[in-house]
């Protein structure tokens, strides 16, 4: 902290008074009587996103099918307009971003598309085993492995031999050096697919270094940026990333199930999508209903079906807020909030607690993994006391002070609530593990 002696709530209030983004909190629906610290799973609702949905509903009622051309903005080009707005937030050039599908669908279509470009694919009749491998890591969010394995199987490639898993040394983080070592050990690497931020620990990986290592090994570099877009100031094109995916319901605050996004470097805009659909067709002739697929000339070719307007519309209003705030300022506040949270865990909580997130802000995303042997019971006790967090096995309580609506006093109050719960053993009243959404 700036002043180690200023460990009180008044210090948090002073930080809030100096916060240039403080006013943005009023643009979100913040639950009464709660400290919401789960924006890394679902961002809160900005009023502008609600207004965007209401506008599209009104257009649907008033215009019906004419909304595809007569709405403002028109529905036909809605996804493309949002894609253009998202591009600068992730460091992409014009045409490199598409608002489309869900995150897992985008993993399927992009991994599949690029596997099809590599020598040895399909490998069903390849007795020499020259099929390409996909390099992942053991701390990935499970859906990424599910999708990659499925795409390998569909091409006659055995995932047991061709899913190269980089191991973690500490169960929390993945070292870029270990990714590089895996690439040095294998001469069959075709794709490196990593998260930008590990979903459990919050480690921010060195995207540029990993992309460079992949290219040095003759492989493509892809990233799952679900836990970073909207809170990390990416430069995907500048880093040489080949492709990336992300969701819109975490730090972009576009609502549950909001339409996802993808990025494909312009050098790959001649690749044929593995999942071809009519909405990825070139727009000029899309409604000529030709029998032959003519893909769009940019990342829009990885759209599959008709964009779900009611799940896409909230992104428009949410981007209004993020664009005004500026992702660079959002990142600075995120670092300040997570620094503050880590300091309070160190100074205010018992020795049973540990911080599982890198302390170097250049290696940290937007949330902090607070570790405790009774993490699940603690998370349940906190929810019953108005602190909304989530739990990830085996012992991680994820705490996310999302910058656009979280105050420093909220962080202070959350840590104080944690301290009181463990001091009174209140968490021991809860079951050791339950079901449902955590």
Automatic annotation (TrEMBL):
Its EC number is 3.7.1.3. Keywords: Hydrolase, Pyridine nucleotide biosynthesis, Pyridoxal phosphate. One of its GO terms (cellular component) is cytoplasm. Pathway: Amino-acid degradation; L-kynurenine degradation; L-alanine and anthranilate from L-kynurenine: step 1/1; Cofactor biosynthesis; NAD(+) biosynthesis; quinolinate from L-kynurenine: step 2/3. The keyword Hydrolase applies. Transmembrane segments: none annotated. Its cofactor is pyridoxal 5'-phosphate. The keyword Cytoplasm does not apply. InterPro entries: Kynureninase, PyrdxlP-dep_Trfase, PyrdxlP-dep_Trfase_major, PyrdxlP-dep_Trfase_small. One of its GO terms (biological process) is NAD+ biosynthetic process. It catalyses: L-kynurenine + H2O = anthranilate + L-alanine + H(+); 3-hydroxy-L-kynurenine + H2O = 3-hydroxyanthranilate + L-alanine + H(+). Signal peptide: none annotated. Belongs to the kynureninase family. NCBIfam families: kynureninase. HAMAP family: Kynureninase. Catalyzes the cleavage of L-kynurenine (L-Kyn) and L-3-hydroxykynurenine (L-3OHKyn) into anthranilic acid (AA) and 3-hydroxyanthranilic acid (3-OHAA), respectively. This is Kynureninase. It comes from Candidatus Halobonum tyrrellensis G22.
